[in-house]
Write a structure and sequence with these properties.
Layout (H helix, E strand, L loop, with lengths): L4 E3 L22 H15 L20 E6 L3 H12 L4 E5 L6 E6 L4 H10 L4 E5 L2 H8 L4 H10 L11 H14 L4 E8 L5 E7 L9 E6 L7 H15 L11 E5 L4 H9 L50 H11 L6 E9 L3 E4 L11 H19 L4 E4 H4 L7 H7 L5 E7 L14 H27 L1
Parallel strand pairs: 8-9, 8-10, 10-13, 11-12
Antiparallel strand pairs: 1-5, 2-4, 2-5, 3-4, 6-7, 7-9, 11-13
Helix pairs in contact: 1-2, 7-13, 10-13
One 2-acetamido-2-deoxy-beta-D-glucopyranose binds next to loops.
Pfam family, one: Peptidase_M14
Function: Involved in the digestion of the blood meal.
Keywords: Carboxypeptidase, Disulfide bond, Hydrolase, Metal-binding, Metalloprotease, Protease, Secreted, Signal, Zinc
Length: 461
């Protein structure tokens, strides 16, 4: 266990109405929650989500601190937003509502200044790490763990470590060879840097078409638990197939690693890289989860190339998002009944809309199935997941893949999962958590698949 310490901060009074550039709020209690929306809407389009300036120089994480904070009133929120705007803190996770919580990183050079600012504002921080580099160094066991398992399974992939992209792809190819009747692997496109994007179809149906279920992982490079968990799901559906009665009634299409370039960059150069590796004179990369073509360009997506949430020059400008779009649209509308896109972190099961604070007409059904999935996880591993629409739980973010899946591809059960944890490690989740996270995510897949099949049977009767 790492040491974590409550950094206790004593009261200093601040007068109201200081000039940090946000509109004054009335005391109407309903505006408390909406303050964050309005204030973030203002900077959303600018720099929210992740490292503000995504230039190609990796941050020095030695001595960088990780904190959790709860923002209890508008004054707290103003201070926090000001620190984001001035690029003194790097937000890793942010939830909305009255008890707005955030996890953020502060580089060593800014630690003193930032602590002073929170101190002055009477905001208590919980320190989760005093050296993010140490988390990175201890996250992943050495490659020899991989080599040991190789002889047993025939593939190098394990769920004891995070692996490079080629190991993930070799695992898919191994299944295509060794489970010929069940698995088909296809290249659905190439990344910006020319790496293949691979999909595996897992189906015992032969040519017969059954309700189809699409899963993708690794849209965001630094969220390593995502591809690790998605390969765990693939393994369960193949090697532990008899444990799941729904498996023979569903065609699964799974892309474990969408942003292959970004992932490799995060492994070899910059652990906190998020976007793809689209070229740019000043800054590289497009946020693929702001690049999908439904309400593209709206809230929570930036036109600035250096931002972590840069949406790209146009909808589907990137080969990675194009590959997903083109693959799904090759099928008749109505083929896919469920869509899961797997992210980290925060422990959320979210459904559309992400582009604004609204839910689709079948929002209650999406909530119901999400609640069932969360209950299944709670029972299995005692991990708590919150369920709700993306914009309402976290923040508005237009151009997300789930909104596109729901609105354009017309996939009824469309969810974004934010896997473990709640910020103790954040993106740098140690490899020992891959198995329990895989186990509980498989339980979510099971619930969504079973409920989707039930709905199909009802329609037929
Ligand atoms: C990173 O920062 C630490 C502490 O601030 C310093 O000792 C180290 O030299 C820096 N590393 C690089 C590569 O700049
Ligand atoms: C793997 O290598 C590390 C050193 O890098 C060593 O401590 C450990 O015992 C090795 N594990 C196995 C299973 O060989
Ligand atoms: C197979 O699935 C069952 C049911 O989810 C689970 O309890 C079991 O641990 C799995 N077995 C393996 C080898 O993963
Ligand atoms: C389950 O988690 C809750 C917190 O979410 C905790 O209070 C409780 O003790 C846990 N139960 C077990 C059996 O670990």
């Amino acid at each position: 266990m790492r040491k974590s310490a409550w950094v206790t901060i004593f009261t200093v009074c601040l007068t109201a109405g200081q000039t940090v550039g946000f509109p004054e709020q009335t005391e109407n209690p309903t505006t408390e929650a909406s303050f964050f929306d309005d204030a973030f809407a203002e900077i959303d389009s600018e720099q929210y989500e992740g490292r503000a300036n995504f230039r190609d120089v990796p941050a020095n994480l030695t001595g960088a601190h990780l904190y959790r904070v709860q923002l209890k009133n508008n004054e707290h929120k103003r201070v926090f937003l000001d620190l984001i705007k001035t690029e003194q803190i790097d937000v890793w996770m942010q939830s909305r509502g009255k008890k707005a919580k955030a996890v953020f990183m502060v580089l060593a050079a800014n630690v003193e200044k930032v602590n002073m600012r929170f101190y002055e504002a009477d905001i208590t921080l919980k320190r989760l790490s005093d050296n993010v580099q140490k988390l990175v160094d201890e996250e992943n066991p050495s490659e020899n763990v991989t080599k040991l398992s190789n002889s047993k399974t025939g593939y190098a992939l394990t769920w004891k470590a995070y692996h490079k992209a080629s190991v993930i792809h070799d695992f898919l190819d191994n299944y295509a060879t060794n489970y010929k009747d069940l698995c088909t692997v296809e290249k659905i496109g190439n990344t910006v840097e020319g790496r293949p994007i691979k999909i595996i179809k897992i189906s015992s149906g032969g040519d017969k078409k059954r309700p189809a279920f699409f899963i993708d992982g690794g849209i965001h490079a630094r969220e390593w638990i995502s591809p690790a968990t998605v390969t765990y799901i693939i393994r369960e559906l193949v090697e532990n197939r008899t444990a799941y009665s729904f498996a023979d009634e569903v065609d699964f299409y799974i892309v474990p690693l969408m942003n292959v370039d970004g992932y490799e960059h995060s492994r070899t150069r910059d652990r906190l890289w998020r976007k793809n590796r689209a070229p740019g004179a000043l800054c590289k990369g497009v946020d693929l989860n702001r690049n999908f073509g439904y309400k593209w360009g709206g809230k929570g997506s930036s036109s600035s190339v250096c931002r972590g949430n840069h949406r790209g020059p146009s909808a589907f400008s990137e080969p990675e998002s194009q590959a997903i779009r083109d693959f799904i649209l090759k099928f008749d509308i109505g083929t896919f009944k469920a869509y899961l896109t797997v992210h980290s972190f925060g422990q959320y099961i979210m459904y559309p809309w992400g582009y604004d604070y609204m839910t689709p007409p079948d929002g209650t059904e999406l909530q119901r199935v999400g609640d069932l999935a969360a209950a299944a996880v709670k029972k299995l591993t005692n991990t708590s997941y919150k369920v709700g629409s993306s914009a309402k739980l976290l923040y508005a973010a237009a151009g997300g893949s789930d909104d596109w899946a729901k609105a354009v591809a017309e996939i009824p059960y469309a969810y974004t999962l934010e896997l473990r944890d709640k910020g103790d490690y954040g993106f740098i989740l140690p490899a020992k958590f891959i198995k329990p996270t895989g186990l509980e995510t498989m339980a979510m897949v099971q619930v969504v698949a079973e409920e989707m099949l039930k709905a199909e049977r009802l329609k037929k009767n």
